[in-house]
Amino acid sequence: MATHHSAATHNDVGGQGEGKIRCSHLLVKHRDSRRPSSWREAEITRTKEEAIEILKGHERRIQSGEATLGDIAVSESDCSSARKKGDLGFFGHGEMQKEFEDAAFALQPGQVSGVVETASGVHLIQRVQ
User: Fold this and answer.
1) 16 assigned to active site
2) Is residue 70 part of a domain?
3) Over the stretch 115-124, which tens digit does the pLDDT of each residue have?
4) How many domains does the chain contain in total?
5) Does the residue 9 lie in any domain?
6) What are the pLDDT digits (tens) for 4-45?
7) Which residue in 33, 38, 120, 126 is the catalytic one?
8) Of 12, 44, 56, 102, which is the most exposed, with the fewest CB atoms less than 10 Å away?
């Protein structure tokens, strides 16, 4: 996903640079994902439709207040950012896949997206800052 999953880049010692936002996400991969494997599963065989249904279940839990995106990401996200509650750090335009970037930049801080499809899989994105 991101070129860098850290909160600061070499030119950005303090964290947030101009035009950058910070997001967390929850990724569910499927068999047609760019890399259909993760730290959770060596070979992902679910369909895209199954991945979307899984993600919608997570979305319902977040919307109901039962759990936060970060809490779910720790055990359920197929991204290595799961260990950081899905935190991708700060990023600017051109650093993420276009669909992800468009959805992330459209969010207000604290807001969670609906299902966002990219070549990596399907995501829920929460804008942090």
Assistant:
1) no
2) yes
3) 999 999 999 9
4) 1
5) no
6) 333 333 333 445 567 999 999 999 999 999 999 999 999 999
7) 120
8) 102
Domain that holds residue 69: 21-127
Which pLDDT score is estimated for 13?
40
8 Å CB contact between 85 and 74:
yes
Q: Choosing from 30, 79, 113, 126, which is the catalytic residue? A: 79
Residue 8 lies inside a defined structural domain of this protein: no
Write the CATH number for 70.
3.10.50.40
79 flagged as catalytic: yes
The residues, any chain, with a CB within 8 Å of residue 83's CB and separated by 6 or more, are 74
Q: pLDDT digits over 89-111, tens only?
A: 999 999 999 999 999 999 999 99
Residue 18, C-beta contacts closer than 8 angstroms, at least 6 positions apart = none
- Say what the pTM is: 0.85
* 5 in catalytic set: no
Q: What ranges in 1-129 are assigned the alpha helix state H? A: 48-64, 69-76, 98-106
> Catalytic pick from 24, 81, 123, 126?
123
Which has the closest alpha carbon to 121: 41, 68, 59, 44?
44
Q: Is residue 7 part of a domain?
A: no
Give yes or no: 25 in active site. Answer: yes
Catalytic residue among 23, 24, 25, 30: 25
pLDDT digits (tens, 9 = 90+) for 57-70: 999 999 999 999 99
